[in-house]
Amino acid sequence: MKEIQSSMAGTVFKVLVAPGDSVDTGQTVLILESMKMEIPVDVQMDGTVGEVKVVEGDFVNEGDTLVVLS
């Protein structure tokens, strides 16, 4: 299992995947909003989404787990 973590503090603007979705390296899985900028969060490996740990509107800190790939 691989955890995708937040690289910065911000608000979850949009979740683009759901559990069971297949993802490819470089695919954007969600978008964070910080200081009026939208920051895409991409996966670094192929896999299947096992769990999405956040919902739109959640505030996350740097290092928080956002998505778990199986």
From TrEMBL:
Domain Lipoyl-binding residues, every copy: 1-70
Superkingdom per UniProt: Bacteria
InterPro entries: Biotin_Carboxyl_Carrier/Decarb (IPR050709), Biotin_lipoyl (IPR000089), Single_hybrid_motif (IPR011053)
Pfam families: Biotin_lipoyl
Key word Secreted present: no
Gene3D superfamilies to which the protein is assigned, alphabetical: 2.40.50.100
Repeat is among the record's keywords: no
Record field: transmembrane: none
Annotated keywords: Biotin
Name the UniProt record assigns to this protein: Acetyl-CoA carboxylase biotin carboxyl carrier protein subunit
